[in-house]
Amino acid sequence: MPADGGDNPTSPGRRRSVFGRHVTAVGANPEAARLTGISVPKVLVRVYVISGICAGIAGVIVGARLQSAVPDLGTGYELQAIAAVVLGGTSLSGGRGGIGGTFIGAMLIGVLVNGMTLLNVSSYYRLIIQGAVILAAIAIDRLRLRGGR
């Protein structure tokens, strides 16, 4: 079975480009990727640079939209991002996932957060609920991986 989880139509870039296959291989098993001749540090640096550029663009967009710059504006969004990715089916062990599932996970987290806002749920309980959702998704992922062996 390929490292990207099989014939996944939502990940054409990962399957069709050398860089995408290298990122998937490093995410699945860095040691195996190194043994196949992939320069793991080079791939990781490129991924972190791309991530930093995307974060910078997002910061500029948010700053322009709010017409202010606050250094701790996005505090707590990382938990929502992790929850969306895990709910979308991406394995935290690496090597499995796709953009389609992540999009669906983001929609589910958006509905969950919006619903908690409409119900005036305390911010402390929101974090607890989001953490519980992440733990449940991780438990399901582990059971799915264990069942596949």
TrEMBL record:
How would you describe this protein's topology in the membrane? Multi-pass membrane protein
Classify the main location: membrane
The family database entries (InterPro entries) matched by this protein are listed as: ABC_transp_permease
Provide the alphabetized UniProt keywords: Cell membrane, Membrane, Transmembrane, Transmembrane helix
Q: Where in the cell is it found?
A: Cell membrane
Q: Which residues cross the membrane?
A: 43-64, 99-118
User: What protein is this chain from?
Assistant: ABC transporter permease
